[in-house]
From TrEMBL:
<keyword id="KW-0378">Hydrolase</keyword>
<keyword id="KW-0645">Protease</keyword>
<keyword id="KW-0479">Metal-binding</keyword>
<dbReference type="InterPro" id="IPR036264">
    <property type="entry name" value="Bact_exopeptidase_dim_dom"/>
</dbReference>
<dbReference type="Pfam" id="PF07687">
    <property type="entry name" value="M20_dimer"/>
</dbReference>
<dbReference type="InterPro" id="IPR010162">
    <property type="entry name" value="PepT-like"/>
</dbReference>
<feature type="domain" description="Peptidase M20 dimerisation">
    <location>
        <begin position="183"/>
        <end position="269"/>
    </location>
</feature>
<dbReference type="InterPro" id="IPR002933">
    <property type="entry name" value="Peptidase_M20"/>
</dbReference>
<dbReference type="GO" id="GO:0008237">
    <property type="term" value="F:metallopeptidase activity"/>
</dbReference>
<comment type="similarity">
    <text>Belongs to the peptidase M42 family.</text>
</comment>
<keyword id="KW-0862">Zinc</keyword>
<dbReference type="GO" id="GO:0046872">
    <property type="term" value="F:metal ion binding"/>
</dbReference>
<feature type="binding site">
    <location>
        <position position="76"/>
    </location>
    <ligand>
        <name>Zn(2+)</name>
    </ligand>
</feature>
<dbReference type="Pfam" id="PF01546">
    <property type="entry name" value="Peptidase_M20"/>
</dbReference>
<dbReference type="InterPro" id="IPR008007">
    <property type="entry name" value="Peptidase_M42"/>
</dbReference>
<dbReference type="InterPro" id="IPR001261">
    <property type="entry name" value="ArgE/DapE_CS"/>
</dbReference>
<protein>
    <submittedName>
        <fullName>M20/M25/M40 family metallo-hydrolase</fullName>
    </submittedName>
</protein>
Length: 381
């Protein structure tokens, strides 16, 4: 029942609409019009005002015609840069850009799939559960849309986010993460005339960094320092440098331990480098939780529904663990178990990004089958 040609045309049309993070208003208006025509009640929250964007999150409610629990379907409206003026090329069943921009399959393939599924249901008067469509803003800027979503607009306790690659996998585990920043202060001096009067903030920071274990710490835990900036000129002993990094783990206790190790290493190193009676070098450590983890049991109905739908279609559906994050992490912390499904997008966030139309069709068929099973079999939460 999925109309492959219509799905492809819809995706291409959405991909051509500029919607870099913070500038989703134009695509949101198009989506609002289409969802309304399909019978949904569409609302926007005030997330845009709180994150300095031009649009809030879109929430579209379909009443359905089956007395079962509502299901959430979600994707994000924003893209990474460069995402303006996308020229879509379709050749041999594959969508690409012209190589000067990203394509935007992340995550406009999700938006196109959701619209196609709901249109098929309407056209064929199929049995359908209540569906809550959530299309978020600024996902690419650290899940900001989901973090600022008005959850009072939702009734769903489970659902699916279409924001992964594998069309035969469902992500049910994703890590928690902390953002970690170190601001190191030293003392400026002329590097040629009186370097002994200075205290190099860069040297002090380097001493601390050299003591840290970075990269993959174990199968559940990673740590990275990704940004460093400081100094004023080559002839000035640098008095300030800042380092920004992150730690991730599927185990909250491990995350806490790694985070504390980083903090204490910087603090102890500064103390070791201080001369008697001197308060420099010193460090200011800032730790902020970036996103919570996701752990959905393999016997949860969100998994069972996806697996049964896949089996009905003659396909596999395996549980997967991700090292990255999606809106699902934030939804999970608000009591919504959202499995992350793939649309087939590849090489995302690059100029080589592409997606095979058949993969989008497979994703749409899976979502349609999930909704049909839930509507007719009334699986209990």
């Amino acid at each position: 029942m999925i109309d492959e040609e219509r799905l492809g045309k819809r995706f291409a049309a959405l991909a051509r609409i500029d919607s870099e993070s913070g500038s989703e208003a134009l695509i949101a208006k198009v989506l609002e019009k289409e969802l309304t025509a399909l019978g949904a009640t569409v609302m926007f929250d005030d997330a845009g005002d709180r994150i300095n964007g031009d649009c809030g999150n879109l929430v579209a409610t379909f009443k359905g015609n089956a007395e079962v629990a509502p299901v959430m379907l979600s994707g994000h409206m924003d893209t990474v840069v460069p995402g303006k003026g996308v020229k879509v090329i379709f050749e041999d069943g594959v969508f690409r850009s012209d190589g000067t921009t990203i394509l935007g399959a992340d995550d406009k393939s999700a938006l196109a799939v959701i619209l196609e599924v709901m249109q098929v249901i309407k056209e064929n008067n199929l049995t359908c559960p209540p569906v809550e469509v959530v299309m978020t803003v600024c996902e690419e800027l650290g899940l900001l849309g989901a973090k600022n979503l008005d959850y009072d607009l939702l009734q769903s306790k489970f659902g699916y986010i279409l924001d992964a690659v594998d069309t035969e996998g469902i992500v049910n585990r994703a890590p928690e993460a902390n953002k970690i920043s170190a601001k190191v202060y030293g003392r400026a001096a002329h590097a040629g005339g009186s370097p002994e009067n200075g205290i190099s903030a860069i040297y002090a920071a380097s001493c601390a960094i050299a003591k840290l274990e970075l990269g993959r710490l174990d199968e559940e835990t990673t740590c990275n320092l990704g940004l460093i900036s400081g100094g004023a000129a080559t002839n000035i002993v640098p008095e300030y440098v800042e380092i920004h990094g992150e730690a991730r783990s599927h185990d909250p206790a491990k995350l806490d331990k790694v985070t504390q190790t980083i903090v204490s290493t910087f603090e102890h190193t500064m103390a070791e480098l201080q001369a008697e009676g001197d308060a420099l070098p010193r460090v200011e450590m800032i730790v902020k939780n970036d996103f919570p983890n996701t752990i959905i049991a393999e016997d949860h109905m969100v998994i069972k529904l996806a697996q049964k739908a896949a089996a009905n279609l003659g396909r596999d559906m395996v549980c997967k663990t991700s090292g990255g994050a999606a809106d699902a992490n934030v939804f999970f912390s608000h009591g919504i178990a959202a499995g992350v499904l793939g649309t087939g997008m590849t090489d995302v966030h690059t100029l080589k990004e592409s997606i095979v139309l058949k993969d989008m069709v497979h994703c749409a068929e899976l979502i349609l089958e999930i909704l049909q099973i839930h509507a007719t079999e009334k699986v209990a939460l």
